[in-house]
Design a protein that fits this description.
This protein folds into 2 domains: 2-117, no CATH class; 167-291, Chemotaxis protein chec (3-Layer(aba) Sandwich). The protein has 12 helices and 10 strands. The chain has helices at residues 2-12, 18-26, 35-41, 47-57, 64-70, 76-84, 89-99, 105-119, 129-142, 149-165, 205-216, 225-250; strands at residues 171-172, 176-177, 180-182, 185-193, 197-203, 254-256, 260-261, 266-268, 273-280, 283-291. It is elongated and about 65 Å long.
Length: 292
Amino acid sequence: MFAQFFGAYLLNKEAVTRDQLSEAIQKLSDARIKLGTLAMHQSLMTASEVDEVCFIQTREDKRFGEIAVSRGYLTDSQVDSLLKAQTPDYLLLGQNLVDIGALSNTDLERLMSEYQSETAIDDMSIENNDKSVELIHTFFKISGQHVNDETILYMNLLFNDLIRFVGSDFTPLAPVALEDYPIDFCVTQKVTGQMNIESRMDMGRDAAIQFASRYAKMDFSEFDEYVTASLEDFLNLHNGLFSVNMSNQASMELILEPPYEESGDLLMLPKNSFMLPVIFPFGTVSLILSFY
C-alpha cells in the first residue's frame, strides 16, 4: 500500500501534478525496476552516482551493474543481491515519475528520505498490516482529520479491498470534512449496531463502468443495472468483511442494511463525515464516509 500513499504524499508536497502521477500509475504494470533505483533505495549509491552511470551507458554498451562495479560504486556481490531483492511497489512508482521527467533521481532520493522520516516508517519495503494501519493513521493526521481507531481499521480494509478486487493503480487524495456533497452516480450502504457507518461511493458513469468491469471481471460497455449491482456488491462485500473483523476482534456486532443507489443531486450528510477522492486511471472515485 506504500505506492498509493507515497503518491498522495508527492501530490501534497506539490512535487508532481495529478496528470503526472496518473501517467506514472498507468505504467506500473509494464515497468521493471532498474538496478540504479534499487541501489539508491538501499543507500548503496547516491543519486548523482546513478546519474553518472546512466550517462556512461549512453556512451558505452555495458550494463548498469558492470559500470557501477568498474567505478567502485558497487561490488559484484552487491549487484547480485540487488538483482534478487524484493521490489517495493512505491519504488517503481518513483522510478516511473523519473522516467517521464516529473522528478529527477535527486528529487526522488530526497522525497523518499523525507517521506520515511515524516511518516516514521523505517522500512517501506515491508508491507504488513500493522505498518499499513500506521501509514493510514499518519495519512489522516497529515490531512488534519482526527479519526478513531475503528475508522482507521475500516479505511485500512477498504484500501486493501480496492487493491484486491479493483486494482492497485490508484492514489488517495487528502480527506475533506463536509456537510453536503453534490453527487453524480452514488451507491450507499448503512451499517448499524454498536457503531453506525454510512458508506458511499460516488463517481461519473464512465468511471462506474470501468470500476464495475474490474470488480466483476467482465467487460461492461454501457451503464446499466449490472454496473449498479457490481458497485453495490463491492460495497456490501467490504462492509461484510469489516463486520466480521469487528465481531472477531472486538466482539462488536454490526448489522448491514441493503446497499442502494442514492437519489437526488445533493447529499445532506450527518456530522463527522468526510470525502476522500481516489484517483484511478479511469477516473476519480469519491469515498464519502460518515461514522457516528
